[in-house]
Please model this.
Amino acid sequence: PPFSVSGHSSGGSMASQHFVVESATIVGLGHLQAAPYGCSKQLASESDHSICTTQPADLNVTKMIEYAEQQFSRGKIDDPANLKDRPIYVYAGGSDTVVNYGVCIKADELYSNWKAPGSVEYVQLPTAQHAVQADGAQTPGLASPPQAETRPWLT
Model:
């Protein structure tokens, strides 16, 4: 049966990897303060993973796209073109010191490559630190909490 994936931080990075790899089956992605698909493939060394969380200027979206297309051509992942009709929600905290909001902007750029312009829902809360904002009525700066009825990938 169809299902969506979502996650926060390292869980969001894992959800993103799974979403792209299994794009024929997975129907949506909730990418919450996480690294985008394929970012670790451009590391200078295997031990330097900080580029994927704190150095957005060093992330090359074109290389991530090329990596995905290469993996597809080798039969290792589903066709990234499947993402075209899949809902994608990317959330960033503007004050996040764990996953720089610029990394989430790069994720938005990556997923937007396979979708119609503006069809990735990107939300950045300027004062949010590294946490999932869940209670809109209690959280300053968040008008209302995400609703499962309008964002099925959050269920």
Q: What stands out?
A: The chain has four helices and four strands.
